[in-house]
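note to self: dont lose this again. the chain is below, predicted strucutre after it. 86 aa total, dont forget to put it in the shared folder this time
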Amino acid sequence: MITAFKRKVTVKSGGLVSLRSNKLKPGTKAELIVLVEPVENSVERSMTGSDLLKSGLVGMWAERKDIGGSLEFACELRKEAEKRSR
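---
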């Protein structure tokens, strides 16, 4: 049987989140799912070109032998998508 706990908590320094319950026994296996509420009045900014370069996304497939040029690869993906039934 699965037991669920729902608690409103505040994230502490370093991203620390605490959950305590007398129903949680030492050695019990658990899976934790964290749902984060947006911070009021916060504005998410998009990535800049510099952010993108630092992210490791640019060039991540450079060593793949199964992908030719990016333009050719994108054209093939589009062709495959068009063939799919709706």
